[in-house]
Amino acid sequence: MFKSLDQMKLNSILIFVFSICVASLVQAQQDPQYTQYMYNTMSVNPAYAGSRGHAVFTAIGRTQWVGFDGAPNTQNLSYDTPLGYSGLGLGINLMNDEIGPSSEIYLDANLSYTVETGEEGNLAFGLRLGGRLLNIDWSKGTTANPEDFPPVDKFLPTVGAGIYYHEPQWYLGLAVPNFLRVEHYDAENALGDVAVERLHFFLIAGYVFDINEDLKFKPAALLKGVSGAPLSLDVSGNLLFNEKFRVGLGWRWGDAISGLLGFQASDRLLIGYSYDLTTSNYNVTNSGTHEIMLRYEVLKDTRFRSPRFF
């Protein structure tokens, strides 16, 4: 009898610890993050859709905290294009995000409208509509009795907006990807409301310096604010050599330092890779984060085109 009681206590402790771990992971990383976000800006700001002036396909695969069991694993595929000469832009974003026993599939449509402001300035307003399918299978976790936790299958709607201003040498944008605050778990469930869809604010900025004819330098920053969580700041600097090779360094406040590489394989295809070395407490149990990016641009005429740095 005493053995049975001790086992029950142990199971309860294991369940409690696992619940805290899941709550911490979910609250620390509400939305998936990318080191190479600057090459897929629509993922953080819907107003970017169509801003390159032609159709663009972008794919990103991110394996985070390699060696850490249940670490985030994310794949993203997006397409955006201007709609004629109307000032409208359309973008579709499909993403799969997995962390521990939880997996989410995101599907969003982004619509932007751009107005010219002066000779070179463009101001765009963006709207995001879509949803997410959330699935939690506790049997994939380490709980002692996963059958005690009801599985979760939910549809979470998305309504977001953004504003994006850009000129040939610089850009600035502010976005809220989702205004809706939705509880991932019902209050009557055993875990309560440990995972809540919190309000995010993304502020992005970047500037391109022409050092000489063959070399450009682009510093960029992304500031992310999440209700109930500390600010997150990404700062990076990338060099573009001969409009072909890209190399850079990044730093995420209190989390990681990054190395970035890029190769303009053709006028249409850009290949990118980044590696994050974790500097937070997770560095004891993981060997970093790998991210691969492919961007294909559907160009009508490439004879006099110079690759844009953003």
Question: Can you put this structure into words, describing what you see?
Answer:
The chain has 310 residues and is mostly beta strands. It has one domain: Porin, CATH 2.40.160.40. It has one helix at residues 2-28; strands spanning 55-63, 73-82, 88-99, 102-117, 121-136, 152-167, 170-176, 200-207, 209-212, 215-226, 232-241, 245-252, 256-264, 269-278, 289-298. The protein has a 14-stranded antiparallel beta barrel. A hairpin with a 5-residue loop joins strand 2 and strand 3 (88-99). Mean pLDDT is 81; it is low at 1-29.
**Unreliable spans:** 1-29
Ends distance:
67 Å
Report the sheet with the most strands, covering strand number, pairing sense and barrel closure.
14 strands, antiparallel, barrel
By CATH, the topology is Porin
Q: How many domains?
A: 1
Count all strands and give the number: 15
Task: Briefly note the structural class of the backbone.
Answer: mainly beta
Globally, the shape reads globular
Q: What percentage of amino acids are in beta strands?
A: over 45%
Rg from alpha-carbon coordinates:
21 Å
Tell me the number of helical segments per DSSP (H or I, 4 or more residues long): 1
The oligomeric state is: single chain
Q: Mind telling me which CATH architecture this is?
A: Beta Barrel
Give the overall average pLDDT.
81
Helix content: under 10%
Instruction: Return the string of H and E elements.
Output: HEEEEEEEEEEEEEEE
Strand order, sheet with most strands? 1-2-3-4-5-6-7-8-10-11-12-13-14-15
CATH superfamily grouping = monomeric porin ompg
* CATH first level: Mainly Beta
